[in-house]
Amino acid sequence: MLKKALLILLGVSISKAIRFISHLCNGNQPVAVDDSSEDDVILTQTVSPPGNKYDVLLSFRGEDTRHTFASYLYKGLRNASIHTFMDHELCKGESISPVLLRTIEESEISVIIFSEDYTSSTWSLDELVHILECMHKFGRVVIPIFYNVDPSNICKQNGNFGKGFDVLKQRFKDDHEKLQRWRNALIQSTSLSGWDSNVIRPKFKLVEEIVKDILSKLNYESSSHLEGLVGIARHIENIEKLQIEARIVGIWGMGGTGKTTLAKAIF
To answer: Which pTM does this prediction carry?
Structure first.
């Protein structure tokens, strides 16, 4: 009993210490605390994301854009050497697959293509919910594309876009929680910075602009990881001098000496 009491006291002390340190780290701002227990501290902050397997994940309703805009965008991203996931081989059913859930978590950027019949697919809506969860939890980037659909119709679930959602409201009338999750995700998506196919024409120009935007976002993320590397600026300068006289420069050396890191920094 004495041992158990000591362990409880130790746990309480550690919890209070965490509360105090978190308070300091947040600039003396209050930390979210679960009122159900005085010593249970819940920090509402972004956690470290899983390792990146893909640069970009394309999310769309297959029947609407798979063989048109989604394919054009996929080709544009791949031509720009952006590692992109497009669910060519996934069989879609009622429930979103664990493979796709994991792929969303491992993708740096998720691009959501909203089309007129988007809400007729429960798979697409579940995918959207998980993408937004990863945005909040892991700090992932989400880019909506409004393809031949008005963003206000998505926000309000009306117009032609809302017809599919009306069917779901009848189908899931006893599952209010699921309907509300889908509705909240649709509303939140329209508040994100995205692209409207009715504003940028023709379609190839829209693809070019989206690819350029994604490249800039990926390059920004990559360069941020290189900040603070001691001595790299001098190596970059030496390579750039060589590039004045040569079209191709090779970086040769033992493994682990930073060749790939230097190449990424120069690129």
So the answer is: 0.66
